[in-house]
Description:
alpha/beta; 7 strands
Amino acid sequence: MSGMSPEEEAAMLAELKAISTKASDSRFDGFAQKVVKTVAVTDENTTTNGLNTVDFLQGNPEDPALNQYWYSQASVDALTLECERLIKSRGQNYKVAFLSTPSIYFALSDESRGQCWVMDYDKKWESDRGFVFYDFNKPADFGSKTEELIKSFDLVVIDPPFITREVWEKYTESAHALLKENPTFNAKSGQVIGTTVAENAPFMEELLGCKAQKFRPSIPNLVYQYNSYANFDGAEFLGKSNPEIDP
């Protein structure tokens, strides 16, 4: 975080990860049951928003070993609807890369998902058409699909497993590699949506041109609060307060 030495940052992150890991195992079952009860379901796969939302949280328990903690159902919906809005307003040539954000990718409508890719370290989704194995320590390496994917995306959506600047610098390299010609990450070229803690706001603007949005996602099994960030104006769903966090 800003103002900390690398050693202090690493120590803090290790402590937070230990706390959140301890909490996750005991709290996830209750969280999943709460999701099923509170989301208005029209059939077994979709919510009233027309998104594929319930299945992901029911079928993919969090994995603390990967520092994998999911947004709440309502937060997945809000983030997904922002992406759906952009996809539908820009047309079939608008392509989105979801970096370490599988819950949003899999919540997309089937139609929208056809022009999106999900890039993640967890290979349990590798049978999906849009899955690409991604290791943030190799920011511009997307395996056999590297040549196809470089400089081909209009939007990247990012939620790293760690909050440190060092990790965000690697994700920034990935964004630079994936987005269409976008030397300044301005709204006329590559668009970016990300989530991380409020303390990271200075380097989110420095690295990606992103500013904090009004919407703050809920992550039930994480011990610290995230903000949402975007490098463009006019975000609709990120421009509203989240009643889970800011009633």
